[in-house]
């Protein structure tokens, strides 16, 4: 059931061409004209977004621009009411969080995803515990959890038997990410993962985010912090009032262009066209 390491490595090899331009590669996830309405509020209008394996796609935008709703449609919390979702090139329906996790989509929230009263191992195996002769196989779960954390170079945890309540925000984030990796997720969605973190913890989470991409996973990273975004992103997608107004390769991108798109939905610095990374 859980071939912890091997599949991820194969995925990383298969995506060795990753990073930068899209070329003819198939996106891991593609949203086509995806829309979502809440009563009279058009939260998302015909969003087109491509997320590639081996890349970090940052989604930025002002308050209310539609970032969280976009993530929630992908993770099955708010199924879209228009448009299409393609997964590895094939149309899929994601109606529930269970549908999303069956595809290999894992969402990491700052605090909500873990149970404070349980320890690191219990959290990582919650609902998917290993048993042996009808008893919990604590040793095997403990060593698998520790192996995954160390494969991600998460070294600041004193013990995997520490309760999650006793961890720092950054360490919690690391455990949540390791959990996603351990269960062979293909797409990890992070909503404001650094919002509540200090400088050192933020650096750790950003490094971990890059490491996920270098293993061949796709990552969607939502943040208000442009420093963080420019540090981790391969692609930067900008939402403005529920529309996707730009999707640009991060490398060499003028920060002010992103600010323009975020604040006004357009940028004269970059031509006024809807900029798409894979056309470039
Ligand atoms: N459950 C809901 N019911 C009704 N309207 C909603 C719901 N969730 C979001 N919206 C509306 O959809 C729009 C987009 O909200 P969303 O939460 O995606 O913004 P955001 O980009 O994540 O903003 P922030 O940066 O503040 O987190 C907003 O106008 C919001 O009021
Ligand atoms: Mg939000």
Write up what this structure looks like:
This protein is an alpha/beta fold. It has one domain: 3-Layer(aba) Sandwich (Rossmann fold), CATH 3.40.50. The protein is 32% helix and 25% strand. It contains 9 helices and 13 strands. The strands form 3 sheets. It has a 7-stranded mixed sheet with strand order 6-9-10-3-11-12-13, sandwiched between helices. Strands 2-1-4-5 form a 4-stranded antiparallel sheet, with helices on one face. It has a two-stranded antiparallel sheet with strand order 7-8. Helix 5 crosses helix 6 and helix 6 runs parallel beside helix 7. It is globular and about 60 Å long. The chain binds adenosine-5'-triphosphate and magnesium ion. The site of adenosine-5'-triphosphate has 11 residues, from strand 2 and helix 2. Adenosine-5'-triphosphate binds next to strand 2 and helix 2.
Brief synopsis:
This protein has 280 residues and is of the alpha/beta class. It is built from nine helices and 13 strands.
Mind sketching the topology for me?
Blueprint: H1 6-14, E1 29-38, E2 41-51, E3 56-61, H2 67-74, E4 82-87, E5 90-92, H3 97-103, E6 105-108, H4 120-124, E7 131-132, E8 135-136, H5 138-151, H6 169-182, E9 187-191, H7 199-214, E10 218-222, H8 226-232, E11 235-240, E12 243-249, H9 255-264, E13 275-276
Helix pairs in contact: 5-6, 6-7
The structure holds adenosine-5'-triphosphate and magnesium ion.
Magnesium ion (MG) binds at residues 67-68.
């Amino acid at each position: 059931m859980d071939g912890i390491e091997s599949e991820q490595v194969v995925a990383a090899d298969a995506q060795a061409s990753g990073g930068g331009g899209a070329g003819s590669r198939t996106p891991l996830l593609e949203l086509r004209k995806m829309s979502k309405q809440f009563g009279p509020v058009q939260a998302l209008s015909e969003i087109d977004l491509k997320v590639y394996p081996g890349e970090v796609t940052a989604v930025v935008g002002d308050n209310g621009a539609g970032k969280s709703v976009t993530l929630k449609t992908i993770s099955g919390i708010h199924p879209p009411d228009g448009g299409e979702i393609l997964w590895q090139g094939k149309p899929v329906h994601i109606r529930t969080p269970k549908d999303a996790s069956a595809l290999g989509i894992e969402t990491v929230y700052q605090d909500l995803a873990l149970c404070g009263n349980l320890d690191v191992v219990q959290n990582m195996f919650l609902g998917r515990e290993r048993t042996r002769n009808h008893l919990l196989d604590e040793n095997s779960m403990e060593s698998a959890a520790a192996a995954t954390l160390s494969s991600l170079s998460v070294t600041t945890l004193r013990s995997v038997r520490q309760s999650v309540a006793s961890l720092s925000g950054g360490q919690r984030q690391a455990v949540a990410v390791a959990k996603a990796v351990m269960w062979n997720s293909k797409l990890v969605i992070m909503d404001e993962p650094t919002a509540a973190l200090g400088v050192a913890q933020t650096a750790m989470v950003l490094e971990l985010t890059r490491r996920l991409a270098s293993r061949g996973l796709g990552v969607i990273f939502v943040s208000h912090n442009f420093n963080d975004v420019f540090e981790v992103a391969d692609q930067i997608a900008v939402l403005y009032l529920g529309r996707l107004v730009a999707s640009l390769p991060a490398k060499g991108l003028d920060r002010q262009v992103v600010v323009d798109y975020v604040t006004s939905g357009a940028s004269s610095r970059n031509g006024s066209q809807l900029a798409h990374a894979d056309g470039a």
